[in-house]
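Following up on my earlier message about magnesium ion. Here are the inputs again, as you asked, copied directly from the submission form:
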Amino acid sequence: MEGLVFKSTGSWYKVQAEDGIFYDCRLKGKLKLSKTGATNPVAVGDRVVMELEDGQAGQGVISEIRDRDNYIIRKSVHKTGQAHILASNIDQLVVIASLTLPRTSLGFIDRLLVSAESYGIPARVVFNKVDLLSEEEKEYVGILADMYTSIGYPALVTSVVDDLNIAEFNQLLSGKTSLLSGHSGVGKSTLVNTIAPHLSLNTQEISLFANKGKHTTTYAEMFRLDENTLIIDTPGIKELGLMEMEDDQMSHYFPEMRPFAKNCKFYNCTHLHEPGCAVLQALDEGKLPLTRYDSYLSMVENDDNRR
Ligand SMILES: Nc1nc2c(ncn2[C@@H]2O[C@H](COP(=O)(O)OP(=O)(O)OP(=O)(O)O)[C@@H](O)[C@H]2O)c(=O)[nH]1
Ligand SMILES: [Mg+2]
Ligand SMILES: [Zn+2]
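Thanks, got it. Here's what our run produced:
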């Protein structure tokens, strides 16, 4: 039978087979050695071939993994060089951010967006918890959302408390497989519960003392909202991995820079200080958002951002 992996807890996998039933599966021996060098041979979102386990109701064995359309790697916390596949076969990355409780920096949002670009996965941005903001801050978030939308990342401003743009959030996910990412406590699980109460994902008050989430969600897990809509709820992540790249390639992952970068005098321009740099000129003329260029600078200058 064909199946889809919804959850992995290390040695067991929750797989929905084509008969619609969920099975607890383990891996056939030969699959345990991953060819990709990843610590997990099978990831959430993988399409697999599974066989039923004789005499064990509800259990199966995964015998084959279908080729992945794409996948996202979670940056290793310990720099062991070991990659962990967070999820595969994703239609879009939805970055969920909040300006306060917890604060999400624009640099963090932009790093996730660059990761999505590097894996060729479309991305969206959701600014949640705006009920906690002053009028002035709300206006600022609106400007940010317009900016992201204009450079190719459709953005939403939401509040679960005020029921703001929740229908639009639902619309954003509809018919797709979405990976939800963002810091712990921004409201990823709460947003999903709001549009799909039957899932009742665990959520938790964030600690006022640390102004940080508590990592309520601990495993990446996929949920079905309807026949064609799947979401992958992830634990609050610090960073996603990036494909390996050189400095002069970084601007390829900033879609708003690409049309200008073509006109730079040097083909390998890093847009930092070179003469005849069309990106710097566009920046001077106010044609490129400054906050994005700031993120670009910090990513080019910080080798840590690359695996
Ligand atoms: N004021 C306000 N609080 C919200 C909103 N959305 C979520 N929250 C609260 O924020 C807290 C954290 O929400 P979660 O959904 O657990 O956050 P998460 O992003 O899933 O966090 P992790 O699972 O740890 O990564 C909960 O107490 C929610 O009730 C919102 O729009 N406004
Ligand atoms: Mg959660
Ligand atoms: Zn340049």
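One observation from looking it over: Residues 261, 264, 269, 271, 274, 277-279 surround zinc ion (ligand 3) (CB under 6 Å). Hope that helps, and feel free to reply on this thread.
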